[in-house]
Every structure is written in structure tokens, then in C-alpha cells.
Design a protein that fits this description.
Blueprint (H helix, E strand, L loop, with lengths): L5 H19 L3 H25 L7 H10 L2 H12 L3 H4 L7 H13 L1 H17 L5
């Protein structure tokens, strides 16, 4: 019997952890919201990158690239950062540029779950080729 593939389990668990920690800095409602957003984005990303294309056995760079492109939270953050493109070259007002700066931070944070998934997959392969969790 096969378990959950390492890439999938690590990506979802990391997204849950990041969502809880990031939201708990503000409050319980924010913890629920950020956990839902991070887990939802990671779930969509996992379904597409792991089971549709390029699948679990693909090269790590392909999985990472597709996992980032398929995450809807990354697309929303890219749109928000693109709307505030004028803030980055010269700074701008603090409150007017707060959204685009946070969007860049969200993009970087969304890179962590797929990276953790790749690390967990590599560790499991090196350890003995165990497929499941």
C-alpha cells in the first residue's frame, strides 16, 4: 500500500505551519484566514503539479516551477505587486506602497512549501526509496 507521496505531504504540512504562524501574529481570525489561504493554494498547486503534470517522478526544478505557477495565491500576490509597480524603483509613500511590499513577501513565503516538499522527497529517496509518508 502506498501512502501520501513525500512531496505532497511536506508541501501541505509546511503550508499549514506557515499559515498558522503567520496568522497567529495578528489574531485567531487571521490565523484561520492565512491557514486557509496557504493550505488552499498549496492544495491546488499539489493537485496540478503532482498528479496532472509533471507528476511525482519529474525533475525537482519542474515540480518547483509548476508548483509556484499553479498556486492561486502567488497569482494574486503578483497582481497586487504589479499594481504597485511604481513603489519599487523610488519608494513612494509608506501606506500607499504597503500592499505591494507585502505581496512580494507573500510570493517569497509561497516558495517555502514547494521547497520543503522537494527537500522531503530528496531525503526520502536518499534514505531508501520509500515512496509513501
Amino acid at each position: 500500500m502506498y501512502g501520501i507521496p513525500p512531496f505532497v505531504s511536506a508541501q501541505l504540512i509546511t503550508a499549514l505551519g506557515i499559515g498558522v504562524v503567520a496568522g497567529a501574529q495578528i489574531g485567531f481570525g487571521s490565523a484561520l484566514l492565512t491557514t486557509g489561504l496557504m493550505f488552499g493554494g498549496a492544495a491546488v498547486s499539489v493537485v496540478i503539479s503532482s498528479f496532472i503534470w509533471p507528476t511525482q517522478e519529474a525533475a525537482g526544478w519542474k515540480l518547483l516551477l509548476v508548483a509556484m505557477v499553479c498556486n492561486p495565491l502567488v497569482w494574486f500576490a503578483l497582481l497586487l505587486a504589479g499594481a504597485g509597480w511604481h513603489c519599487f524603483p523610488r519608494g513612494g509613500e509608506l501606506f500607499a506602497c504597503l500592499g505591494p511590499m507585502v505581496a512580494v513577501l507573500v510570493i517569497v513565503v509561497c516558495l517555502l512549501p514547494p521547497s520543503a516538499g522537494l527537500l522531503w522527497r530528496a531525503w526520502k529517496r536518499r534514505r531508501g526509496g520509500v515512496r509513501g509518508f
